[in-house]
Each structure stands twice: as structure tokens, then as C-alpha cells.
Write a structure and sequence with these properties.
- The protein is α+β, with helices and mostly antiparallel strands.
- The chain has two domains: 75 residues, Nuclear Transport Factor 2, Chain: A, CATH 3.10.450; 142 residues, 3-Layer(aba) Sandwich (Glutaredoxin), CATH 3.40.30.10.
- The chain is 36% helix and 20% strand.
- The strands form four sheets. Strands 8-10-9-12-13 form a five-stranded mixed sheet, sandwiched between helices. Strands 2-3-4-5 form a four-stranded antiparallel sheet.
- α6 runs antiparallel to α7 and α6 crosses α8.
- The chain is globular and about 55 Å long.
- The N terminus is likely disordered.
- Keywords: Disulfide bond, Isomerase, Periplasm, Redox-active center, Signal.
- Required for disulfide bond formation in some periplasmic proteins. Acts by transferring its disulfide bond to other proteins and is reduced in the process.
- It holds the Pfam family DsbC_N.
- Belongs to the thioredoxin family. DsbC subfamily.
- It comes from Aliivibrio fischeri (strain ATCC 700601 / ES114) (Vibrio fischeri).
Length: 258
């Protein structure tokens, strides 16, 4: 088993719990392993980190300062890692910080929240009239539990929960499902298109997906992979915490109000 496959499996084990209320992820057949460009003028520490991880088959997309002294927060297509400034040590999994009251804060969740919000302009949103909470859901139109969640949209909205959708076609960002989801994101009435797709109806007023819409599906899918999504629906709370699987509105509201 390759390093990347071992790493991916361990990330999933640490960052999510296998749920029987989620549709399992299928391995994408075609993956874009090309790293995003990292600024040419990097400090020596970032160059060392990039070289080390690239050698291990982990292309570096971005490097950030972290709350942990001596470590950088590094984004890769296979997850987010904390890597020592000299590139000799790295941590996979969650890192928590205690506040003065002894309460824990998940440092990685805060980063996830920012990554999710970076896609806010390309989400399909079902807003609550009296909004109290906002969740983001990675969804697949072929997933039974995603359909169940969508059919209960009124329950979520009535509970004050706004639902924002990101695309996560489990077969990968290339293929028939991804193309159909790109059609949804291209539709003039995206909400209606989502309703149609999840009701097994032809997409209302569907038109061919543009390259731009296909790229949106790709970006959102790769974001889900980076965050450790391995099934749908995957619910991201405002804190950035990832909840795998379907949850009814009343149960989810209880979690949000804790």
C-alpha cells in the first residue's frame, strides 16, 4: 500500500467516524495530482517543507503559520498537516488548544471553516426564513441519504437552519454524475435544478455544463477530499467541525445549540 493511500486512510480514521447514515465514497478514477503553485519566494523553512512532502508524494498547495510554535499548517490534496519548520516532523490528525477555562478548541476545524467559506459564492443555498444557524453540506445527487436530507429541507429551515450545498460526486469530479451536477450549478434556477435532480426528474431548463461549472464541481470535490470527506452527506458546522452522515433537523439543531 502506498504512502498516500496509508495516509489517506489514517486521516479518514482520525477525522471522521464511519456512519450508516451516509453514502460511501467511491475512489475517483482520475485525480489531478498536480500541486497548486506555491509562491516562488518562499522562506527557507517553506522550501524545506515543500521538498520533503513532495518527495513523499504529497504535493503542497499552501503553507500557513499555525498556532503551534515551530510548526506550519500545510494544505495538500490528501489533507491538512502540521509540519515542523525544518521539515523533519509532521502531524496528521486533530490538534486541540485549551483556553483559560479548560475548554477545547479544534485548530483544524477553524481552518476548515475558512476553506468552506471560500466557496460561499458557488454554493446552492436553501435559506431559513428566521435564520439561527448555517450549515454546509457536501452532497451527491445519487446518494440516498442526501435525498432524504433534501426532502426534509422544510424541517431544517423551520428550525432556523440555512442549508448550503457543496458538490461532492462520490465517483470523482469526472464522469456522468459530476457532469449532471455541473448542469445543476449552471442552471438559471439552481434550487429548482437541485430539487429536480434529487427527485429523479429531468433538470428543469437544463443546459450543457460549461467548463466554468465543471471546474466548480472539481474545486468543491477536491475541497471535500482535503477535509477528509469520505461519504455523503457530510455536514460542516459553522465551527468547521465535520459531521459525517444524515441527521434529522431536531437532532442537528441540538448539536448546533450546544
Amino acid at each position: 500500500m502506498s504512502f498516500i493511500r496509508r495516509t489517506s486512510a489514517m486521516i479518514i480514521a482520525l477525522m471522521s467516524v464511519v456512519s450508516f447514515t451516509a453514502c460511501s465514497d467511491e475512489q475517483a478514477k482520475n485525480q489531478d495530482a498536480s500541486p497548486s503553485a506555491v509562491e516562488a519566494a518562499q522562506p527557507d523553512a517553506e522550501q524545506a517543507i515543500t521538498q520533503r512532502l513532495t518527495t513523499l508524494g504529497l504535493p503542497v498547495e499552501a503553507i500557513h503559520d499555525s498556532e503551534v510554535d515551530g510548526f506550519k499548517q500545510v494544505e495538500t490534496p490528501f489533507g491538512i498537516f502540521y509540519v515542523s519548520s525544518d521539515g523533519k516532523h509532521f502531524i496528521q490528525g486533530r490538534i486541540f488548544e485549551f483556553d483559560e477555562n479548560g475548554d477545547m478548541k479544534d485548530l483544524l476545524a477553524a481552518r476548515f471553516a475558512k476553506l468552506v467559506d471560500s466557496q460561499s459564492e458557488n454554493m446552492i443555498v436553501f435559506p431559513a426564513k428566521n435564520e439561527k444557524h448555517v450549515i454546509t453540506v457536501f452532497t451527491d445527487i445519487t446518494c440516498g441519504y442526501c435525498t432524504k436530507l433534501h426532502k426534509e429541507m422544510k424541517d431544517y429551515n423551520d428550525a432556523g437552519i440555512t442549508v448550503r450545498y457543496l458538490a461532492y460526486p462520490r465517483q470523482g469530479y469526472q464522469g456522468s454524475v459530476a457532469d449532471k451536477m455541473a448542469q445543476i450549478w449552471c442552471a438559471d434556477d439552481k434550487q429548482q435544478a437541485m430539487e429536480d435532480a434529487k427527485s429523479n426528474r429531468p433538470i428543469n431548463g437544463s443546459k450543457p455544463a460549461t467548463a466554468e461549472c465543471k471546474n466548480i464541481i472539481k474545486e468543491q470535490y477536491l475541497l471535500g477530499r482535503k477535509m477528509g470527506v469520505n461519504g455523503t452527506p457530510a455536514i460542516v458546522l459553522p465551527s468547521g467541525d465535520l459531521v459525517p452522515g444524515y441527521k434529522p433537523a431536531r437532532e442537528l439543531l441540538s448539536d448546533l445549540e450546544k
